[in-house]
Write a structure and sequence with these properties.
With 191 residues, the protein is mainly alpha-helical. It folds into two domains: 4-86, Orthogonal Bundle (Arc Repressor Mutant, subunit A); 94-161, Winged helix-like DNA-binding domain superfamily/Winged helix DNA-binding domain (Arc Repressor Mutant, subunit A, Orthogonal Bundle). The chain is built from eight helices and four strands. The chain has helices at 4-29, 43-54, 58-70, 97-108, 120-127, 131-137, 139-143, 177-186, and strands at 74-75, 85-86, 147-150, 158-161. It has a two-stranded antiparallel ribbon. A hairpin with a 7-residue loop joins strand 3 (147-150) and strand 4. Helix 1 crosses helix 3, helix 2 (43-54) crosses helix 3 and helix 5 packs across helix 6 (131-137). It is elongated, with a radius of gyration of 26 Å.
């Protein structure tokens, strides 16, 4: 009799093997921007077709594709009848654009300040992203050095604001009232 632990270990090995084989297959057969051929049922069809092509269990391939999506190597969009799209280096997943823009705007305006830990759980809730997908979405701000991922941060492991914002200088508001008053005080123009 096979115990549950052995079945779980075998399943994890199948998924790891599928992940490795799919990465190699994608690297050798597709360029960034290209889509995997869609099949009936969109992503499930793609997983089925890829499982047949690579001679792997369909469930392991399906899990591996979801992992590649969560890691930002491919983009699978729910409700999209096209197959998954290969993402290029530094290319942002379409689900990440809003979170990236919001974090940048909040840092720029001082809502998040230097040294503050980003509330990744709250960001995940706000943008309906899992923790793995929040990490994927923060890659751009980490790459641009607005945020640093620290394993030994002051509040534990997490993402910390590294970008320094400065308050806007007080600039006097220019109006036409002062120049008009000067002109009126000077009298009529000379002819």
């Amino acid at each position: 009799m096979i115990d549950t632990t052995t079945r779980v270990a075998d399943s994890e090995k199948q998924i790891a093997a599928a992940l490795l084989l799919i990465r190699v297959h994608l690297r050798n057969n597709y360029r960034p921007g290209q889509r995997l051929p869609p099949a009936v049922g969109a992503h499930l069809g793609t997983a089925r077709a890829l499982a047949r092509r690579l001679k792997l269990p369909e469930q392991a391939v399906s899990t591996a594709l979801r992992t590649l999506d969560a890691e930002g190597e491919i983009e699978m969009v729910v409700g999209n009848s096209l197959g998954p799209r290969i993402l290029g280096p530094g290319e942002m997943h379409s689900d990440d654009i809003a979170l990236d823009a919001t974090v940048r705007q909040r840092i720029r305006t001082g809502y998040y300040h230097f040294g503050q830990a980003l509330p990744t759980g709250l960001l995940g809730d706000e943008f309906m992203l899992s923790s793995a997908k929040v990490a994927r979405a923060l890659r751009g701000v980490v790459w641009d050095d607005w945020v640093r991922q620290e394993s030994q941060g002051p509040y534990g492991p997490g993402y910390y604001v590294h970008y320094v914002t400065f308050p806007a200088p007080d600039v006097p508001t220019l109006t036409l009232a002062a120049p008009v008053a000067l002109l009126q005080a000077a009298g009529p123009p000379l002819s």
